[in-house]
Amino acid sequence: MSAENITLNGSSLAAAVEPTRERAVAAGYGRVSAKAWLKPVFARWWDKGIGVILPVAILASWQLATGPLHLVKPVFLPSPWAVVTTFWDLLAHQDLLRDVRTSATVVVQGFLLGSTLGVGIGILSGLSKTVERFLGPTLNSLRQVPTLAWLPLIVLWIGMGTVAKSVLIGKAVFFPVFLNTLQGIRGVSKEYIEVGEIFEYGRGRLLRKVILPAAAPSIFVGLRYGAGLAWAFVIAAEMLGGHYGLGYLLMRAQELLLTDQLFVVIVIIGTVGYFVDTGLRKVEGHLLRWKKGFEG
User: Between 246-255 and 259-287, two packed helices, what is the crossing angle to 10 degrees?
Assistant: First the structure.
């Protein structure tokens, strides 16, 4: 066989092998691309769905215990379907929306009262050692008294109306917001203050541009915790009196052994509180989008 024939045969073999290799490489790239595409999709699905696993497991166990297995009597633990049915009945025939609206009004008023005072006094105390020394002993003493211990005194002084309920919730909200605001301002790095002084910031501009942004994460922790307390104390606040509100509905259900209504109220309070906290967290994420930290 001549050298020319060998060259031609080699060229033919290379031409025959090349498309096969290209198809294999293309197939390999296709598999890699599919994996690369599926991985972030699965990660996003997992991030969004992992929080649903535990509630679904609790709901399934609840249904098994009250349904097929009959481990618990309905008077102690109604089935999930009974709770859903009672919810629709309260919504359609017993003015549940009015009760929710009444409680929400009290919670909003109490939260605004407590959070406004907490942030304001926390900022003043954080900026001035004199203010902190002046208010510290009194506020620290008042903080040790449980919120419910103020209930009889509030009724005696203010009565049993909406204002009294808002004051009770405001007291519960005030201290976590105040303490987190104070701690947030005192936790601002001295280097930040020195940079502001280098740029010749005045007191007001230093507060707006340096101190408050640096303290904002801690302040938002206090606000979120205070919002949770506000919804938790709405029941105690509505024990002051009245014939409307989730607290009244809860107390009536307990007196009449209407356990399904008890669960409806508990689920509503938890659900509304969850969405309030989620909303505050989104506001915090938007305002503090510049802040990067450890995400776990």
Answer: 150
CATH of domain 80-287: 1.10.3720.10
pTM: 0.77
Reading the block at residue 178, the tokens are: 């105040």
Cα 202 from Cα 129, distance rounded (Å): 19
Q: Where are the alpha helices (DSSP H) in the chain?
A: 3-66, 80-93, 96-127, 129-143, 151-158, 162-186, 190-198, 203-206, 212-232, 234-238, 246-255, 259-287
Q: Where are the domains of the chain?
A: 1-72, 80-287
- The CA distance from 241 to 64, in Å, is 38
- Under 8 Å between Cβ of 247 and 239: yes
The pLDDT of residue 207 is above 80: yes
Instruction: Tell me which DSSP letter residue 239 carries.
Output: T
The residue count for the chain: 296
Rg of the chain (C-alpha set): 31
DSSP string of 244-294? -SHHHHHHHHHHTT-HHHHHHHHHHHHHHHHHHHHHHHHHHHHHTTT----
Which residues lie closer than 8 Å to 239 by C-beta, 6 or more apart? 151, 247, 251
Distance CA 231, CA 173 (A): 10
> DSSP 3-state assignment of 41?
helix
In sequence order, which residues have a C-beta less than 8 Å from that of residue 229 and are 6 or more positions away? 169, 172, 173, 176
pLDDT digits (tens, 9 = 90+) for 95-139: 888 888 988 999 999 999 999 999 999 999 999 999 999 998 999
Which DSSP letter does residue 106 get? H
- From CA 224, how far away is CA 230, in angstroms rounded? 10
